[in-house]
Amino acid sequence: MTLLVYNIGQLATAQGQTSPMKGEVMSQITTMENAAVAIEGKTFSSIGSSEDLLAEFRGSDAKLLDAGGMGVIPGLVDPHTHLIFSGSREFELRLKLEGKSYMDILNAGGGIIHTVSRTRAASAEQLSNEAKQRLNRMLMYGTTTADAKSGYGLDTETEIRSLEVIRDLEHPIELTPTFLGAHAVPPEFKGDPSGYIDHIISDMLPMVAERGLAQYCDVFCEEGVFGVEDSERLLTAAKEHGLKLRAHIDEIVDLGGAQMAAQLGCETTEHLAVTGDEGIAQMAEAGTVGNLLPGTPYSLMSPIYPRARDMIEANFPIALATDMNPNCYTESMQFVMSLGCYMMKMTPAEVLAASTYNAACAVGMEDTVGTIERGKLADLVILDVPTHEHIPYHFGVNHVRQVIKAGEQVVKDGLPCYNG
To answer: Which of 146, 195, 343, 405 could form a disulfide with 172 if both were Cys (CB 3.0 to 4.6 A apart)?
Structure first.
């Protein structure tokens, strides 16, 4: 069955890329007015003008979807989410307003540790139900592919349960699982981060790898959490178990995590709010993709955002992500795109590239998603905007009207409509 999406006001997508977009290439977005896209089964079969494709399929049994002159972009890709957790932490907003820092709240038993206690107490069914609610909101905001991390268990039982929930979730959004057992030092290892890393390496990692529960291993390399040496030990062990590597680095303090990540060959690095010139240069040379998370400094009320302009000028490829978690609680990549422009001085074309193709590179799926091109998975979003530039410009609203994932309509008139 052919699905023909026609009467597209402006279609905007990266095209023809074979590696992460960087430098001036990040601005090379292809746009087409009065466009149409044909979908055969799960993949795009042709892109052209509405006039030409309507003529081509006239008299056929193709299903027609009128975009109503709205804009179309590829399905958004969110390459950094902490999907699996229970509960919320709205009480922390008051503490932040009183001047408490992220580490103050964490050291007082709040932050990650607060969520850990609730996640450990939650059943797999409860974790799954809460995750599906978040995924539905992500879908309504146009996300069709995402990273999904564990990391709120910090013990073997709950970390495995969290990864199994990710594996077993039935939802249109395609997920790439990441093991983040080293998200914080749990209470039972308080004051002994190296001992906890030993525990992860000896007990958790082998089980995660043997059961095939994760594609990536991540670590929170930060002052007061895990130092560079412990982070390197964990990531080296994860690599030996066949996992690809990620690293939370330079969110608050530059410990040299960028250099470590470059030397280890990390696929991505996350946060990068305080990364220096040397770190940027080394990651650019190593081929790492930097996942920038502007929602995090926003939620921390910090004036320090990643140096996106310097990174682009240094030919360091960057992606955008929500960092969706109880501290930075947003499922909207559209909001993150707006922050990319207003707080990091990225252009609308750059934030679109960073939220689609480069984000697909950051989850290892650039060959199948992230652009609207023949042969790729048919993921697209219809938005009530005249151009792609309007998405970050008009913020605080949801522009999405329809979402198609792998050729199936999964959001209609702004609401989920998938089976399951």
So the answer is: 405
